[in-house]
Amino acid sequence: MTDILLRHDSEHITTLTLNRPQARNALSLGLMEALDAELAAIAADTAVKVVILAANGPAFCAGHDLREMRATPTRPAYEAVFALCSRLMQRIVSLPKPVIAQVHGIATAAGCQLVASADLAVAAETARFATPGVNIGLFCSTPMVALTRGIGRKAAMEMLLTGDMVPADRARELGLVNRVVPEAALRDATLALARQIAGKSPLTVAIGKEAFYRQAEMDLSAAYAYAAEVMTRNMLARDAEEGIDAFLGKRQPVWTGT
């Protein structure tokens, strides 16, 4: 891992910090590769229960690194960028640990996609979001995939067609972010949410996250059949037995992750 991505581990929470402040944390090939590699390693790391995506500098993420992309204006180069970005976003969704975006400044284009791909998002009151590709002749087609799965279609289409900046409070109304807090409280608020989730059974959280995304792509009857099977499997886990026994016994559960 290079210094364009920083990692900090504490209390079973890993914070990955985008560290290209001069470029507003634009997603260069190097940054996407570093982030994808770290998430792949975290997937197998039993010590990590929650991941926070944060950023240094004035912005969370301004999207793809357009200067880097225009330096090699060929189809293979563009295909490589978007393939890597797509893999990274799917890595976030498939990661068996919740991912929380800690957003300040702007999150635009692929930066907005990063927020929409995260499981949860906490934003500073001053944060703003946009998919402004349409303004420069490049429709935000890949950010659209995450956006349309995170907010309503009409709202997503408005963002995609106008390119307008959406303030944090409106982003919360749309469902793009979960919580909006004063900028000075952003880190503490994100950590509080991460700690709350880290206190749950990691097995249960992993089962639930996978099931959440899988059932969302099914029709109603298939979703219920799948969810019933997931709950049956979950009930047979040691952590479910421990959690139910602890609840009935009015004591704190002791999770083993099995």
Count of individual domains = 2
The CATH class label of the largest domain is Alpha Beta
CATH superfamily of the largest domain: 2-enoyl-CoA Hydratase, Chain A, domain 1
Supply the helix-strand structural class. Answer: alpha/beta
Poorly predicted regions are none
What is the H-and-E element order? EEHEHHEEHEEHHEHEHHHH
Count up the helices.
11
Terminal CA distance reads 31 Å
- Please give the radius of gyration in angstroms: 19 Å
Strand order of the largest sheet: 1-2-3-4-6-9
Can you tell me the CATH architecture of the largest domain? Alpha-Beta Complex
Shape: globular
* % residues in beta strands: 15-25%
Report mean pLDDT, rounded to a whole number.
97
Give the % helix. Answer: 40-55%
Strand count, sense and barrel status of the largest sheet are:
6 strands, mixed
Q: What is CATH's topology name of the largest domain? A: 2-enoyl-CoA Hydratase, Chain A, domain 1
| Total beta strands | 9
